[in-house]
Amino acid sequence: MAVNPKLRPGRDAHVDRPAPAIVLVEPQLGENIGAVARVMLNFGLTDLRLVAPRDGWPNEKAIAMASGAARVVEGAKLSRATAEALAGAQFVAAMTARPRESLTPVMTPEEAAREMHARTLRGEVCALMLGAERAGLSNEDVARADAIVSIPVNPAFASLNLAQAACVFAYEWAKAAGCAPPPSDLDTAPPATKAQFDGLIDHLFEELDRQKYFFPEEKRPIQQRKIRAALTRAGLTEGEVRTLRGVIKALTDRRPKD
Question: Could you tell me the residue range of the domain that residue 137 belongs to?
Fold first, then answer.
């Protein structure tokens, strides 16, 4: 999916609000780090923390894969150990698919996002940990978490890559933070007035009369009510009424053609 590297006007405020950090523990491929960064910026997250990335840092492949989210990659904080990356956090969630013999609360991504949003509004620093591509998080790292985040996937095939897992949480974070898609044209287009709508109906009925559509005559009232009801349910806008009247005119224009 092609994404404009610049956020739409009016939406930049979502990017620099306080938000959870995404902590990648011992990530292996630079491409995966870049893909996570791209996901993050799409959903208003910018605090990326890396713990001992296998291929070193900085990584050109990560920048290339970020596809416009360079600010996230370039601002990533590098740590040698998980404890260092989490030192300033007050609430940490570990995303893992493996069951643990632990009393740590288990949350869905939606629940974790709502919890972190509430805590962030109180001024707390939150973080989400994700483990290496092959092995995930170690038991020791999971033990540092206040909650486990488990994505409800198909138990017969639980195989999300790093960016996909991050994307599920980031999307839920955006929802919890109040991000919304831009309004559609229908949301901003003024609805037709009753006078405009009646003009369309009169125009349509007049032309249908010319074509002797209303037959037999005694069924005319029922037929007209059905047509009016169908168009009323459509909730036409001013522009749509004008368009439909143009369509009727084009279909019934009896002027001689060249």
Answer: 17-176
